[in-house]
C-alpha cells in the first residue's frame, strides 16, 4: 500500500499536462496509447493533436481512406499501428454502433490492442483495476524490488504482470497506472535516474545494492538483418516519375516508394546497370547518377536498410504517370520523405 500511495502522491504533484489526461473518452485515450507505443511523448503529441483535429470521432477515422490515415501517420513509424487503428475504428463504428468496448476482455479483442493498451483504456476510462506493464513499469518494478528476471522473457512478462496487478490501487486504478508510467518516464529514468530525490529511495533494492544501471535485465536481442536498397528515382522529360504502393505483409505495407532494386551488397553504378532488374525496368537509354554519395543506414527494430537513391533521367517511361508536383500527396516511409526534402532543396 505504501508503494502505490507514494507513487500516486508523487504523481499528483508532478504529472505532465497532456491533452488526453483531460478526458475519459476511450476513443481519445486509445489514440494516445497507440501513438505512444514505440514513440516518445514529445514526438507523439503533435500527431495526436493532428489526428483528433482531423478525426474528432471514431466515425471520422473509420470513414477515412487508409492512404489518408497513413499519410497523417508519416514519420511515426511502425505503420502497422496505423493500419490496425483504422481497421478497429471501422469495427467500432460499423459493428458496435460507435460504442467503444468497456471491459478489458472486450477491448483486447480489437485488432492492434494488446495487454498494455487494453489495461490502460479499461483502467483510465472504465475504472477497471487492470495493471499496465510497459517499459517504464518494468524499470520501476525491477529496480524497486531488485528483480533480475529478463523483462522480455515469457517468465518475466508473467511475473511482472502479476506483481503490477497486486500493487494497483483498486479504487483509482487509472491514476495508479498513469502514476507508475510517469514515474518511470520522468524520475526512474533509463539513464541517470533521480535517486537522490526519489520518494521510494529508502526501500529501493537497486539503490541499496547499487544495481540501478544493471536493472532491468533483457535477454539478448535477435540478430539484426542487413538489407541493401537501391531506389530508382525516375525523371522523365515531361517531369513525371514512378511511385508505387508496397504490397504484402513486409515493412511499409500500404506506403509508397520509388521502384526498388534490392541487392545482397552495396552496388556501384556499373553493378546496378548490369542487373536484370535494372535492364527490365529501363530497356531504353537513360542517364543515371547517385544522389547520396554515402549510403543511408535506416535502422528498424529487426533490420538495417543500407540505402542508395539513384536519379534516373529518361525521355519517357510507360509507367511514369505521376507528376513530380504531386509526389507529396503520397504516404511514404520517413526514409523516402527525408530524401524528397533533400532532393527538393537541391533542385
Question: Which H/E pattern describes the elements?
Answer: HHHHHHHHHHHHEEEEEHHEEEEH
User: What's the domain count?
Assistant: 2
Radius of gyration: 24 Å
Q: What is the name of the CATH topology of the largest domain?
A: Endonuclease III, domain 1
On the 0 to 100 scale, the average pLDDT is: 92
N- to C-terminal separation?
A: 63 Å
Instruction: Say which CATH homologous superfamily of the largest domain is assigned.
Output: Hypothetical protein, domain 2
- Specify the helix fraction band: 40-55%
Uncertain runs with pLDDT below 50, 5 residues or more? none
Brief synopsis:
The protein is of the alpha+beta class. The chain has 2 domains: 2-208, Endonuclease III, domain 1 (Orthogonal Bundle), CATH 1.10.340.30; 225-346, Nucleoside Triphosphate Pyrophosphohydrolase.
Q: What is the secondary structure topology, with strand pairs?
A:
Elements: H1 2-14, H2 26-35, H3 41-54, H4 58-63, H5 66-73, H6 80-94, H7 104-107, H8 115-126, H9 135-145, H10 154-167, H11 173-186, H12 205-208, E1 225-236, E2 240-241, E3 244-245, E4 256-257, E5 260-263, H13 269-273, H14 276-281, E6 287-290, E7 296-299, E8 303-314, E9 322-323, H15 334-346
Parallel strand pairs: 1-8
Antiparallel strand pairs: 1-5, 2-9, 3-4, 6-8, 7-8
Helix pairs in contact: 1-11, 2-3, 2-8, 8-11, 9-11
Structural description of this entry:
- Its EC number is 3.2.2.31.
- Adenine glycosylase active on G-A mispairs. MutY also corrects error-prone DNA synthesis past GO lesions which are due to the oxidatively damaged form of guanine: 7,8-dihydro-8-oxoguanine (8-oxo-dGTP).
- It catalyses: Hydrolyzes free adenine bases from 7,8-dihydro-8-oxoguanine:adenine mismatched double-stranded DNA, leaving an apurinic site.
- Helices cover 43% and strands 13% of the residues.
- The protein has 347 residues and is α+β, with helices and mostly antiparallel strands.
- The strands form three sheets. Strands 1, 5, 6, 7 and 8 form a five-stranded mixed beta sheet that branches.
- The radius of gyration is 24 Å and the shape is globular.
- The mean pLDDT is 92.
